[in-house]
Design goal:
486 residues, Rossmann fold, 2 domains, six-stranded mixed beta sheet, five-stranded parallel beta sheet, 19 strands
Amino acid sequence: MVELKNVTFEYNSGEGLERGSAGGIGEKISNGSLRGVNLSVTEGEFILLTGGSGCGKTTILRLINGLIPNFFEGNLEGSVTVDSFDVSHAELYDTAKSVSTVFQNPRSQFFNVDTTSELAFACENQGMEESEILQRIDKTVSELHLEPLMNRSLFDLSGGQKQKIACASVAVTGNKIILLDEPSANLDLRTIDELAGLLKKWKSEGKTIIVAEHRISYLWDLADRTVVLKDGQIVQELSRAQMDKISEEELHALGLRSARHTQTKKRFSIQNDNNSLTLKNFKYKYRNGYLALNIPYLEIPRGKITAITGNNGDGKTTLLNCLCGLGHRSKGTLIYNGKTYKASQRQKLIYFVMQDVNHQLFTESVLDEVLISQPEENEEEARRILASLDLEQFTDRHPQSLSGGQKQRVAVASAIASGRDIMLFDEPTSGLDYTHMLQIGQILRSLKDQGKTVIVVTHDRELIKECCDCEICLRDFNQINPVNQA
């Protein structure tokens, strides 16, 4: 069904630049190559591709779906065959009749502005009749329970809701080979369970499924085989029997995350502390009148690491935007250390590392990115920060030439350099492997040790267990009424 024989690939200079956002179709592996990869996938097999950030997982997916060499050019040796035809010599529109891909950031694969049109797009490209397209859409929406998301603007959806639409746009085609690149990166636990259910359904239908993923726990019981990569090479393949026997310690030694769901018990209790970060009557409405935030009262501990959790669409990212003064239609009072801060004043108090870090990478080099964040430029300190995040070898690289995980760490480096009192992080470990997840946890603890107040929106239970002092489930404090929006 899918076969890579002695594949060696190196990108042309600049071809690894990202077209989209972290982990989307633009992720470039750290050394820009695959070396002597042999991989055979039989029809109906479920393969888990995993390994450290930049190991070559995304490059393998691009070879299979034809983005290499049709979109990303480079020096390709060896052969890649899919369904008995040579992908490297096929047109993308021919490959798309057999292979569908879900990218980590679905926005990089959307071509429409509304959800229903997006589901129709792939079918239209294959020249299907209108009646068949409508029938396929109805069937997919019903099977995936997407009725509340239909006929909505893609721009108004949360990251998890966008991912659902991306999966639906794949399902509606009926293609027999499905590739997914870090599909759980920005999903809550409930949506991850729904994704696992969808993958189980596809598997039962005989689909050939290849998933590149760091968070492997939800896939561990579904995969028929796990392929571990490092530095562009396959270093280990685990059969189903070997997967059942391997220990957590052995997985961590390979640089992999836990194969079992991580349980955390850290919960939040109101501190009644005048020095805490306090929100009163905190509200935010979208232009269409949708009330996304309505928090009568909430205290966040000062000098601690607090995880903000909840389901996709609960308003977690909106809360961070409003905290740092980016939510221009927000209302309410923010008090810190006994002082009330207006929205404009918060921008000097708070630093925000966004979920899509491409929105905050502006300069021509990684070093300059850190320097502009410092109150006063200090190159020695900037280089020390980069070294602490394994980024010293990229100081002269353009930020947009880095992989998704590397970009994420550059944004974290800029946050550290800013020296602000309050640090906000929106899914800082999305797309990161086990080693770099631990590294981010260590960085957050270091910020706490410096007296910073750290607030992390995350679905990553391993990160919460690793470093967070307490957890706030936003739904417990956000009193919105989805039925009757005022």
